[in-house]
Amino acid sequence: MDSLVLFKRLSLFYGLSLFAQLSFATMQTTPYLAMHVQPKYAKLSAMPYANPNAPKGGMLSQSSLGTFDNLNSMNGKGSSTEGVNYLFDSLMDRALDEPRVMYPLLAEKVSYDPDHLKDVTFHLNPQARFNNGQALTAEDVKFTFDTYQTKANLGFQMYLSDLAKTEVISKYQVKFIFKSKNNVEMPLILASLPIYSKLDWKNKDFTRVTLQPIVGSGPYIVDRIDAGRSITYKRSPNYWAKDLPVNKGRYNFDRLKYVYYRNLDVSFEGFKSRQFNLYEEKNIRNWVTAYHFPAVQAGQIKKYKARLGTPLDIQSLVFNIRRSPLNDIHLRKALTYAYDFEWQNKALFFNQNRRLQSYFDNTDLAATGRPSAKELKVLKPFFAQLNPVMRQGLLADWHYPISDASGFNRQNLLVAQQILKDAGYVIRHNQLYDRQGKAIRIELLMQQENPQRELMPFVRNLNRLGVQVNLRQVDVPQYMERIRHQDFDMMMLKLPQTLTPGKEQAQFWGSAAADEAGNYNYSGIKNPAIDQMIEKIVAAKSREDVVLYTHVLDRLLRAGYYQILTYGKPERWFAYWDIYQQPQIKPKLSVGWEYWWVDGTKAKKLDQPIRKSDLK
Q: What are the protein's GO molecular function terms (predicted)?
């Protein structure tokens, strides 16, 4: 044989062998799930924000608004109950101060190739049990995800759309195969979802609303249901995972109770009369002025501020750009100048809120200043296809307009008028007309619980621009039906955001979601640049890449004037009857009340009547 041919064949053989070894070497099996980051707590016996010696006992009671009729929160039907997540375990559990890291729960380890992420295999803990004593196996996991993909609500099915199939490898091994080869978020999504019992659902309809107890493997089981009024859970006496590192010092309360109220005012009165013990205060006026009643003066109630490193909720006024007149970016930009946050914050919110400047506010994902060189490199291929208004916004050191807080907003309204004039709009007899001579009229859709006083200053400013606004307030079912079918001009929105963005961003801003009833792209955004940024975020293999592409996504969303970001507060406010203790170290990404416990001495003292000498 020709020596050169032999050499090439040998080189090919050894090259392929080496490649095979390298490919095999990249497959890793670890007792944690960490996507391109190093876990901090892989060798700890308990999480640092836990007190492993915390006493068990007592109750944590909280409030909720509205009502409930469904214990199966995953089918998207009816109103699911608060706390239902504590009935179920997931494959792995998130750390409360590490993004993209999860630790063992139902699965004791996981196998995957982080560089060629086409599948992931979870190795279940053989000790895992449902709360009826039944072993939890790979068949239950497969049943759960097959059910999610066929019977969950459509938005959730889209969330799992990259999952090709689920395979049972053995009794305690389950493999998930993906459609793509670069979805870094998918293993984290799969690991975080509740696992159901296949046997429990053998003769039940997953799509039905139900208050019948569901078999789970979590730390609590249903204790008592007062339909529509309250639900109480009790700590499972046979919880299989109580000694795992993620659970030591956790779930210390014997019972969790959620009491339902029709509105915040009644809920606050319920807290004052100790119908429940822990209250998240969302009314700024109450927080500043209402905590002077006897129990507070006697020191029986404590106020607590939790400042977390999580994104602030997206609170905004949404433009429906699918239809006229808000399909014009010039008009949307002008209307942005009519929103007077500074006066609103001073007059209504005691200067406790701050203006949102980003769709990822309060995190490193928020784009600030002018675009960096890396961001510009990512943006450059899209510039030619973008509207000039959008290009200008992308390159700016972005800040929403600032007023003098006088309530007149004169300077910003002059800017808005100039924007409209330059775009061909005209005002005649205090009415704004577009280039075709059509009067600009907008309906602003609101729920009954949305306070009109927050919107009236904005409406008045729009009227000064010649825009006629119909403030349409409807009940919750009608509101949900209208926004589900994109039947509105403008609406108010509150949407949670995440520190680890992934597939859910496609539901918020992706082109496919714009035409899907019941999805979250309420604005109707169809922008190829935004679609590609979402794909890059999903495929990113490092936190640095996630941050880079999210910065660009943030800039695109702002520069498109799809919504007017309004306000948020960087803290969560709580008041509680003083019977609880907390660990000294607080988690960064959660309030972490699951790690609190009842102080028996304080609880006994609280049962004593208030004396005049106790009042401050």
A: peptide transmembrane transporter activity
Give me the pLDDT at residue 36, please: 78
Mean pLDDT of residues grouped by 10 in the chain (616 residues)?
38 36 65 90 94 97 94 89 96 92 97 92 98 97 97 85 96 96 88 97 94 96 95 96 97 98 93 97 94 94 94 96 98 98 95 96 96 97 96 96 95 98 97 97 85 90 97 87 93 92 92 89 97 94 93 98 95 96 94 96 83 63
Dist CA 365 CA 501 (whole Å): 9
Reported as a single tens digit per residue, the pLDDT across 148-168 is: 999 998 778 888 989 999 999
Contact in structure between 125 and 106 (CB atoms under 8 Å): yes
Half-sphere exposure of 430 (CA within 13 A, CB side): 7
The helix/strand/coil state of 138 is helix
Chain centroid, CA 519 distance in Å: 14
- 369: buried, middle or exposed (CB in 10 Å: 19+, 13-18, 0-12)? exposed
Residue 272 backbone phi and psi in degrees, to 5: -60, -35
CATH of the domain spanning 29-55+89-145+153-192: 3.40.190.10
Q: What CATH number was assigned to the domain covering residues 314-568?
A: 3.10.105.10
- Cβ pair 259, 571 in contact under 8 A: no
Given the DSSP bridges, would you call strands 101-104 and 163-170 parallel, antiparallel or unpaired?
Answer: unpaired
Considering only CA atoms, which of 366, 365, 346, 345 is closest in space to residue 355?
345
The H or E element that residue 106 is part of is: none
129 with 219: CB under 8 angstroms?
no
The C-alpha atoms of residue 95 and residue 309 are separated, in whole angstroms, by: 13
Strand bridging mode 441-447 / 597-598: unpaired
Q: How far is CA 39 from the centre of its chain?
A: 22
Domain segments of the chain: what residues? 29-55+89-145+153-192, 314-568
pLDDT at residue 248, as a whole number: 97
Distance in angstroms between the alpha carbons of the first and the last residue of the chain: 101
Residues 479/445, Cβ–Cβ less than 8 Å: yes
| SS3 label, residue 303 | strand
Q: Quote the CA–CA distance of 53 and 611 in Å, as a whole number.
A: 34
Contact assessment for residue 71 and residue 3, using Cβ atoms and an 8 Å cutoff = no
CA dist 145 and 152 (Å) reads 10
Angle, vertex CA 125, rays to CA 124 and CA 129, nearest 5:
105
| Start-end of H helices in 303-360 | 329-336, 341-348
pLDDT of residue 613: 62
Domains 29-55+89-145+153-192 and 314-568 share a fold: no
Q: Which residue in 381, 358, 392 sits closest to 551, CA to CA?
A: 358
Question: Between the CA atoms of 369, 371, 372 and 374, what dihedral angle is there, to the nearest 10 degrees?
Answer: 150
Residue 112: name the closest of 228, 6, 28 by CA.
28
Query: Could you tell me what percentage of the chain is helix, strand and coil, using 3-state DSSP and rounding each to the nearest 5?
Result: 35, 20, 45
